Amino acid sequence: MRGRPDGGQKKRLITSVFVVAIFIGFLYAYYGSSNRGSSALEYGKSLRKLGSSYLGGEDDNDGKQDEASKFGDVEDDVVPKSFPVCDDRHSELIPCLDRNLIYQMRLKLDLSLMEHYERHCPPPERRFNCLIPPPSGYKVPIKWPKSRDEVWKANIPHTHLAHEKSDQNWMVVKGEKIIFPGGGTHFHYGADKYIASIANMLNFSNDNINNEGRLRTVLDVGCGVASFGAYLLSSDVITMSLAPNDVHQNQIQFALERGIPAYLGVLGTKRLPYPSRSFELAHCSRCRIDWLQRDGILLLELDRLLRPGGYFAYSSPEAYAQDEEDLRIWKEMSALVERMCWRIAAKRNQTVVWQKPLNNDCYMARAPGTLPPLCHSDDDPDAVYGVQMEACITPYSDHDQKARGSGLAPWPARLTAPSPRLADFGYSSEMFEKDTESWRNRVDSYWNLLSPKIQSNSLRNLMDMKAHLGSFAAALKEKDVWVMSVVPEDGPNTLKLIYDRGLIGSIHNWCEAYSTYPRTYDLLHAWTVFSDIEKRGCSGEDLLLEMDRILRPTGFVIIRDKQSVVDFVKKYLRALNWEAVATTADASSDSDKDGDEVVFIVQKKIWLTSESLRDTE
């Protein structure tokens, strides 16, 4: 056979070359895309799956807890020396509100119902398990209260709202900063004057919107950059500023950068993540919501959230315009709210304020068959996480019916006064008072540990990841901070007790990403959160990456948990670019049989990707 062309050998050679080329291409695509824009603080390139799959990987969790969930069993040799850094395009990634994910998964959503702005979390195999990089030129945020009026443009490099809303004084670009004059769509001349005018319409004492402490919690729907909520703070009124990630997609990001309480959400098909009877006032300033759709279901969601005697302030053309379409909408909306037993408390110029009844008397007096109907007796108005809205009226409890109202003390007394709804959980006033005192001592201890690292204005946006009765937030009243008190959706739904204290928060499942932008909180407090998700078989590593996503550079994490959890977190400090600040045992804690709780405080380092550094230079 010598000298004869060997066709088979030639084919085998070509096939081998082809296979090798595909394999090299696969390695480049997998590792190259994962490590693009690698961190300036680069500790290595080890990449290992520890709890859920990386991009494009397979989820091999067959229902059992994996390595990362068993905190006491994670060996040093399986902990990555560094996490990959996400591409700079993902510097504003919100995993459960990612429109690219919706497109890629071909989800069939009804755009008219705003389903595309609701939460749709990625399955494990589609999670971005990488560190979210800050944008080019990122700076430590301006401190409160100065931040109310200005932020660094580099931190949120989006100026389209300044041009689009230039006639409404939303925001103005000035050099390296974005300035917020305090205007809005219906209050061009300042939110402070607009707020005072609403108080005057309602005959509140001294035109003060807090009504001598009786009005404390507010929901601002379609809030823009949250200037309404920003200017309510000086009146001791706290606002949950709510808006979707829509065409004005960075409005909530601006609000949080300013140090104003805010949340990404939409009135779509699911209940908002707040319990019934949470707010004294709801507000909509030209929020462009069709309140008449689906038998008034969105207005009925506001009704669920308002306290007895609560107000809805509505500033919109329908309230004053005289063209045919606006008159039609006003007529139909007036008829709807009348059937809901709301009454007009005040109407002036462009604004109308409706008031919800104090008890069930009006509901009981309606003619049989009147729509909207009362909700069924087995409907739980406080069940909200992933629960569909219902086009029905939530009647008051027997207690509220007898009390002709919520029975809450005025602010600030309500912060430490036991809520009438404590009885719903079988909690006593003594238990409430003990919890309040216990957390006051714990927070004092935290601040002593943090004192070498912080000044009086170092912290502004705080999150309590497992808030229980809200006593962590209550203990911070004298600090110039606000706290998002998060109640896990699988535990006692105590969020209504937190709102009854005059605080704010949301329901959440920590096996999923939170509805906020990256780099929005200065401090995260995690009390047994890791132990809780371990019991559910969720990944501790995923939770660490999520905490890193929402934590600002130079921000802090306080972990209060069992020793094995602290040991687990310590193994990831280098990979996360975190550094330990303090560790202390708490032998006095009311811990369970697993042993005494340990307090571990860490700080996130500030870093930029190599791409961002080049852009900055």
UniProtKB/TrEMBL annotation:
One of its GO terms (biological process) is methylation. It is a single-pass type II membrane protein. One of its GO terms (cellular component) is Golgi membrane. It is an enzyme of class 2 (transferase). GO terms for molecular function: methyltransferase activity. The chain crosses the membrane at residues 12-31. PANTHER family: METHYLTRANSFERASE PMT8-RELATED (PTHR10108:SF1120), SAM-DEPENDENT METHYLTRANSFERASE (PTHR10108). Belongs to the methyltransferase superfamily. This is Methyltransferase. It comes from Citrus sinensis.
